[in-house]
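Data availability (excerpt). The following record was deposited with the supplementary files.
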Amino acid sequence: MEKKIGNLFKGDKGIWTVFLFLCLISIIEVFSASSTLTYKTHNYMGPLIYHTTMILVGLVVVIITLNIPCRYFKLMTPIMLIITYATLLWVLVGGESINGANRVIQLPGFTFQPSEIAKGTMVLATAQVLSAMQREDGNGADPLAMKYVLFLVVPAVVLIGMENLSTALLLFGVVFIMMFIGRIPMKQMGKLTGVCVLLAALFLVLVFSVAKLDKEGQQLEQAQATGVEMAKPDKEDRSMWDKFTHRFWTWKNRIAGKEKKAVSAEEYKVTDKNFQVTHANLAIASSGIIGKGPGNSLERDYLPQAFSDFIFAIIIEEMGLIGAIAVVFLYVILLFRGARIAGRCENNFPAFLVMGLVLLLVIQATINMCVAVDFGIVTGQPLPLISKGGTSTIVNCAYIGVILSVSRSAKRKDATA
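Predicted structure:
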């Protein structure tokens, strides 16, 4: 019996331990943080059953993926690139809107987010290019490697960024670090950094300039200030320019919203702009060392995304400082175990692939936790393997499966096979 169980849970035991602990925390905290969903659906057990089902499906995905030898992932790259670009174009044209942005594709019985698939695909493609173009003399990657990586990744980043800027920046940041790890010449990396800074500055100027001229955004802000609801225009009635710039007002408010102004407690007001951050701060401030205990959160009833974007604040409220440190520690272990697996790989491709996927998970987790403690701009990034999700949960489990596959099947430097 023990042998059969051991055959299922193959691969790095440290990664398995982190994964199972994160899943356990996820089930408990999503159930606790789903009070708003329970109220809307009048189904107390519905959110728990759905999320637990997704976790179990994800576990099956992990077991299936880890049994795929890592050399076969290379063969999947062209197929995944076709699927990625096809679905990214599809979601822009005919996707369903979530929080004012087209991010999901509706299919019979379920929806999925192409951006989640795109992240893993771009990491896979980048790992393959970097590994294939390492110089034989061991002096880093061929200068053409960066051009090939950018040729594959930049179009995907642009397509994702039109509706989900934070995910696009996350993906590009991970690819940038992968190129650094893949020993792209530093001169090229410096030029790319300069171009990125210049484009970022031009983008900010464009966003703030267009947002000032956005009558719809101004009307919405006025309606929020006065408490009057304003009907949102049908996206079909928008011009092509409006469809391109309709997220600018949101990005402008999120960036400008981080400007801190000293006000007294009497002057401070909770508005639509600071609603989520304020209640997240209240959750954290009332937590203490050991927290209120699982299921005893109060702010979950006020935070609209308590089970997703701000679940870390609920974890702190219920599990206290000790729980917060434990969650951070799990992601730190994931990073170091991934780095150890990559360091033991004899070939470059599995090493780059593992580091890319681990960085994808850990950096996204860092962004989510920073936002929850009011140390960053609100981005809408869920906490990997903990936040409630459909596509994101399954895809993140697939990432864990790939990491375990590499730990199990990749050739090691300290072994002959």
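Summary of structural features: Residues 217 and 250 are 8 Å apart (CA to CA).
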